[in-house]
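SAMPLE LOG
Freezer: B-3
Tube label: C17
Construct: single chain, 177 aa
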Amino acid sequence: MKKALAAVDATINKLSAFLGNISMFFIFFLMILMMADVIGRYALSKSILGAYELCEGALLIVVCFALAYTQMKKRHISVDIIVTYFNRRIRCLVNFLMLLPCVVFSVVCVWAQFQQAGFNLRDHIITSTLRMPEWPFNIVIGIGLLVFVLVLVADTIKAGIGIFIIDFANETESVKE
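STRUCTURE (predicted):
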């Protein structure tokens, strides 16, 4: 069971890292776009048409694709003043109980994003300046959140197993030190 979980975890981690790299590329794209827009606006008195909408779309990609990577690296903000004094099993239990509602809420968000993509596609919703369709952005958000859900589910399973199997609790990375 450990090998199967490790294989699934490795696959999810590779996918999260891939999305994290895409997120980093879009941060670079945002820097170049904003710099060109500011230079164009103040030096040439001409800004880039649709720069605001392009920044909105790029920020969606940055945030949604970075969520899974950040969860994988255990870098989301957590307040663990009391939990650090608990033994490993209790920490796994607390982690499990905190991750469970996160999984449920995130699944609902994924479902809602794909629903919204369908509505936007059906109704031909477009952006105001560049007249780009909005549904691809909903798909991107949904994909980023879906990978985030996969990371959360893997962490929840590891924490759940760590409650009952002390050896697994000592080896798991679902509880950060």
